[in-house]
Amino acid sequence: MVTKSHGPRARTRKKLKKDKCEKFKVTKYLKEFAIGSYVSIVIDPSSKKGRPFHRFHGITGKIIGKRGNAYIVEIRDGNKLKQIFANPEHLKEVKVM
Fold first, then answer.
1. Closest CA to 17 of 45, 41, 42, 58
2. pLDDT confidence of 96, banded at 50, 70, 90?
3. What is the mean pLDDT of residues 16-45?
4. Distance in angstroms (rounded) separating the CA atoms of residues 11 and 83
5. Within a domain: 14
6. Are strands 38-41 and 70-77 parallel, antiparallel or unpaired?
7. How far, in whole angstroms, is CA 28 from its chain's centroid?
8. pLDDT of res. 72
9. CB burial string 2-32: b at 16+ within 10 A, e below
10. What stretches of 1-97 adopt beta strand conformation (E)?
11. Is there a domain that residue 44 lies in?
């Protein structure tokens, strides 16, 4: 029998897939976010650095700080508050009304 894979990209065939016509853009990597703004975690599969765990793909949270190039995003996972570290290419700003 083959042992089951438990790596960081396990069971992400559809989740971490890019369109063929989607191009690499440098502006994604240079984005700046204000502390207190709301962002959605959308993982960019072409960038391996600063990628959050794939369970948090699509979750919205609040930026509470910055550490190096990465931002600290506070999300709610069930009843717990968790802090996720993610680079700006994996974050998308959300307009709050």
1. 45
2. confident
3. 90
4. 23
5. no
6. unpaired
7. 12
8. 98
9. eeeeeeeeeeeeeeeeeeeeeeeeeebeeee
10. 38-41, 60-67, 70-77, 80-86, 91-93
11. yes
CA distance 47 to 50: 8
Residue 97 reports pLDDT greater than 80 = no
Question: Domain tally for the chain?
Answer: 1
pLDDT of residue 58: 94
At 18, list the tokens.
């890019």
Q: Which residue type, as a one-letter code, is found at position 97?
A: M
Which residues, including other chains, have CB under 8 Å from residue 75's CB and lie 6 or more apart?
A: 41, 56, 59, 60, 61, 81, 82, 84
DSSP conformation class of 65: E
**Is residue 42 situated within a structural domain?**
yes
Parent domain of 76: 37-93
> Per the domain annotation, does 43 fall within a domain?
yes
Contact 62, 73 (CB under 8 A): yes
CA distances from 37 to 7, 33, 67 (A): 31, 7, 16
